Amino acid sequence: MEILKELKKIALFKGFEDKELLSMMNCFSVELKEYEKNQTIIEQGQKVEKVVLLIRGEANVENIDIFDNQSIILNLKNGDFFGLEETYADKIYFRDSLKSCEKTIVAMFDKTRFVFPCENNCPCHQKLLKRIINYSASRSLMLVDKIKHLSQRGIKEKVLSYLHSQSNIAGSPYFDIPFNKTELANYLSVERSALSTILWKLKKEGIIDFEKKRYHIKKTK
Amino acid sequence: MEILKELKKIALFKGFEDKELLSMMNCFSVELKEYEKNQTIIEQGQKVEKVVLLIRGEANVENIDIFDNQSIILNLKNGDFFGLEETYADKIYFRDSLKSCEKTIVAMFDKTRFVFPCENNCPCHQKLLKRIINYSASRSLMLVDKIKHLSQRGIKEKVLSYLHSQSNIAGSPYFDIPFNKTELANYLSVERSALSTILWKLKKEGIIDFEKKRYHIKKTK
DNA sequence: CTCCAAATGTTGAAAAAACAACAATTTTTC
DNA sequence: GAAAAATTGTTGTTTTTTCAACATTTGGAG
To answer: Is the pLDDT score of A186 beyond 90?
Structure first.
């Protein structure tokens, strides 16, 4: 079965046997769905009924605020969840939308299984729970990181803060980021054209280098 | 014992019996500590060895960034954890500091117990785990909220986004916030004097009202 | 290959925020 | 309750960002 291979690639299911995965999929009534580029997977305001796991592709968590402006909150890749926090925190409605950036495959999990583990006490729940906690904790830390970037006063500081953090995650001064320039401006919540100007200024000053989505931090600080 | 009464007030331990609490405290080698105003409870860069639970008082999560600027990431109250995410995400060092804003009592939990539940499979772990997940998930959602405020382009939009969200949490147009003006500016990462000007402008326009830490949203949108 | 659309870069003017310095007010401390 | 310290408000100047409009480049789709 094709899907099992995909699932096993995801950190959350590392080391799971085919049998375990199948029982898990049955237990959570997993439903696979496929989306084209720029489709809405979950709409802001919708009821929290499913937990979405990105199997393949890429999607953005987006929000329309009280002033009717749209912003990208997060970028999700395969292995990422959407709706996990809402489920565990007993939220009724989604406050953000999930939109595919490209051809995307997701697994829809029945939310109730996350809240009430199955009667037959299937072992996958125990195993999963620990990983889910780890996942949720990591996500929190990532959000704190984003807060740190957004808290920077100027565009220069914001983008350098972000690039340093990406470099740390990659463990190298050379790294790819998941955004093009327009999306990066959106992520950092700054004017695209101003970001463009500043990136080139930093390049000319020999502080960074970039080409498409690949960046290089030449000078630390 | 005084401490048991304090613990029972905390949402995390609601419904726990004295016996359970005592066994839990023993199991986690809980150590109580008291801090005066403006003391450093945990210093950025320190090793993650304890999980801190605020029992009484108030503390800020603060960070000094790569440009040596300090900012308040979060404000913690009784019932809030510090270090939980780092523990579950297997981080080695703290990337933020925890500083008391007033006289504060904290419980220091041995981190290893969070990672490896005790051999005797004590029931408190099971019970706690579920609540910890709920806590962690709620925190994530709160962080996403903060991101939404910081993503606003102008000071006016930032502060209104924050006040609306506080009003929602309180479930009323009248509500208290945990910050004075200086701290609010810090939290929203804007210039204090500029924030002051804008708050008064909003007041004169009849959009909001405020007095000390109490605010009132008069017009929605 | 050509055309079209999207992404990216550039510029100048307008708006907003930061900064700095100081006045007024409130809170704390002795 | 007076003095000191911290918080808050005010103002003018400087700097930065946004905004708007357009040029250039890139990346498909046919």
So the answer is: yes
